[in-house]
Amino acid sequence: MGLQEEIIEKRREIRTDGYPMSIGEWISLYEKNEVDIHPEFQRFFRWTESQKTNLIESILLGIPIPPIFVSQRPDGVWDVVDGLQRLSTIYQFVGILKDEKGKLVDPLVLEDTKYLPSLKDQRWENPDDEAHSLPPDARLLVKRAKVAASIILRESDVTAKYDLFQRLNTGGSQLSPQEVRNCILVMLNRDLYFWLRKLAEQEAFKSCTALSDNPVQESYDTELVLRFVIFSHIKLADLKNVGDVGVFLTNAGASDLSDL
């Protein structure tokens, strides 16, 4: 098969759509449980309060926000593939963001910025403190601002959204390779992810690996568990075909492990 034929074939496997949406519409989707931002991901992504404030500032100033990539599930719900931090910041600011246990997260309190120093200590709305509540016209600016949705339709190849997530969250991202794999595992099989984490948190494992704080924060302990589980299911004769271990772990985590 030639290059052009490969391009045509693969393009048929990925069906996409896209259109602009207001932030008010994104808020409505979240309140109706029609978009899943995977609150478990919050432990992997590390946006600071300043980064969150800068996003709100950009929205208020009319600076275009990059599109949100979502994958449409069979039940019609949108899985967020890229844009978690943008959406969770917006949801936290308006006071509707929930953690993985369904508990409301404390609303975001903004910091001062270069262009809008008066944002300091501002909240979305606080009836008891109007001086530190975003003015009504500013709230309308936020709700009417557009953030495009780029949608991978459910007719697409089942691995498309995981491939896209990996491509969008590596390279310049702050995530370690295993943190990206963790996110993929949460989307594929949440119970499997928590099972791996439970193994990594066993005292015998911690004592054996003796990892410092930094590798643990970057989920290297989970990667070691993942290596053990995956390689224990591989025939010795096939080990020579593994190649790049990182790539192999990601591919296995997105396919073979989901069947365990």
Annotation keywords:
alpha/beta, 260 residues, 12 helices
Tell me what you see in this structure.
This protein has 12 helices and 5 strands. It has helices at 3-13, 23-31, 49-61, 84-94, 136-144, 160-168, 177-188, 190-200, 203-209, 213-217, 220-231, 245-253, and strands at residues 16-19, 35-36, 68-72, 78-82, 149-152. It is 45% helix and 8% strand. The mean pLDDT is 81. The chain has a 5-stranded mixed beta sheet with strand order 1-5-3-4-2. Helix 7 crosses helix 8 (190-200), helix 7 (177-188) packs parallel to helix 12 (245-253) and helix 8 crosses helix 11. By secondary structure, the protein is an alpha/beta fold. It has 2 domains: 10-165, no CATH class; 176-260, no CATH class. The radius of gyration is 21 Å and the shape is globular.
